[in-house]
Design brief:
mainly alpha; DNA polymerase, domain 1; hpI Integrase, Chain A; 3-stranded antiparallel β-sheet; 15 helices; 8 strands; about 45% helix
Length: about 400
């Protein structure tokens, strides 16, 4: 009979994506498996690999001693872990949480740690908040000790009914929940925790009134640009850059630095920390190059933010709601419709690029989309599908009609 390995002593692991953890394995006679355990705590505070290694060695020494003395990480199937889905205030107050190691929280915490390494902070918070709500809903509805493989489609349907009927979420928001919860279950399936994904025949939400940003008409664009050129040169530059580069205002535009603009080479660099999807190099239209030359960027430091407090490039970028607030003020003065928002400038530019003869592939690249289907949906939502036959449609009975 082959003797089973009882333990594999702890060792440091690098994920290859910038985060570290200590891993060890212990044979569990209840499951007849050599189970893997990971320790993440404290590594995020390390500033160099030397600090990472020093922190890891302390953990390794502690757990090696415990394992050699006969300690095992379960006590009546209880597992200790740092709960990624618990609120930070609770985690900080009470530290580590004890819970059944097959419970949703344990595996969901593992999933969220992986997402934290793969996506930016804002996206991670979205994954965390939506999966957290699902977990808390389960616990508040009698499923506190449910195992992952016991989460049926019927239970998931009830959760989505809760989103629609109690939380009054619209079609778009519910679809986003489906995307996030679906990603969570796909992870569980990849880990062989479930055999099928219980997301089918979900209830449909009603669509609320469309309050999304719409493209701005040519007439209103001329009025707006003339106004901001006279009253706010910084907002004028931000508006033109968003329109011609089709970049997202929140980070891609707001966090641009002098060094990201190459006027002579006709390039704009969207760096990885600021990009919503992928880092990319954009072609700068000649019209934008001509405008930027008037701002004399060469007088400022390369690491200055273009849109800084004080109205000129500097070390402190404008706030996250700055452009939205300034645009709203202009909209009030100019008596523009509510459907115009600062983000409308991006849609306006995309429409003009299409009208100029750009292909969908060129539009996809300029928008920074990673999937062609996203570009198709974007065009349909904001511009519809133009048809020469429909444009020229004029039945005979309209000829000679006088009004």
């Amino acid at each position: 009979m082959i003797k089973k390995v009882d333990v594999k002593m702890p060792y440091l692991i690098s994920s290859g994506k910038g985060f570290y953890f200590v891993e060890y394995r212990a044979f569990n006679p209840k499951t007849d498996k050599l189970e893997r355990f990971r320790i993440y705590k404290g590594f995020k505070r390390c500033r160099s690999f030397a600090e990472v290694n020093a922190h890891a060695q302390k953990i390794i020494a502690e757990y090696k001693q415990k394992l050699q003395s006969g300690w095992r990480p379960w006590d009546d199937n209880i597992y200790i872990y740092d709960d990624e889905i618990e609120f930070r205030t609770i985690t900080n107050s009470f530290g580590l949480e004890k819970i059944d190691n097959s419970h949703l929280r344990k595996h969901l915490s593992d999933y969220l740690r992986i997402k934290k390494a793969d996506v930016n902070k804002k996206s991670y918070q979205t994954y965390q908040s939506k999966t957290r709500l699902f977990c808390l809903w389960l616990e508040n509805n009698g499923y506190r000790q449910i195992k992952i493989h016991q989460i049926s489609n019927e239970i998931v349907v009830r959760f989505f009914q809760h989103l629609i009927e109690n939380r009054k979420l619209d079609k778009v928001s519910v679809a986003f929940y489906k995307q996030v919860i679906g990603g969570m279950f796909r992870y569980f399936k990849s880990k062989k925790l479930i055999s099928e994904i219980p997301l089918h025949d979900l209830p449909r939400a009603y669509k609320k009134s469309d309050e999304g940003a719409r493209p701005i008409t040519d007439r209103d664009m001329k009025i707006y640009l003339k106004y901001v050129a006279q009253h706010d040169r910084q907002l004028f530059l931000a508006s033109v850059m968003q329109t011609l580069l089709l970049i997202r205002p929140n980070k891609e535009l707001r966090l641009l630095k002098i060094q990201d603009i190459d006027v002579q080479g006709g390039r704009v660099y969207i760096t990885d920390p600021n990009a919503k999807t992928i880092a990319r190099v954009l072609t700068m239209p000649d019209a934008l190059s001509e405008i930027i030359r008037h701002y004399e960027f060469q007088k400022f430091a390369p690491d200055d933010f273009i849109f800084a407090r004080g109205g000129i490039p500097g070390k402190t970028e404008v706030g996250i709601n700055y452009f939205n607030r300034k645009f709203s003020e202009c909209k009030t003065v100019l008596n523009f419709p509510k459907t115009y928002k600062f983000y409308s400038l991006k849609h306006t530019g995309a429409g003009k690029l299409l009208e100029s003869g750009a292909t969908l592939a060129e539009l996809m690249s300029h928008l920074g989309h990673t999937r062609f289907e996203s570009t198709i949906r974007y065009v349909r939502r904001h511009f519809g599908e133009k048809s020469e036959k429909i444009l020229n449609f004029k039945p005979d009975f309209l000829e000679g009609l006088k009004l």
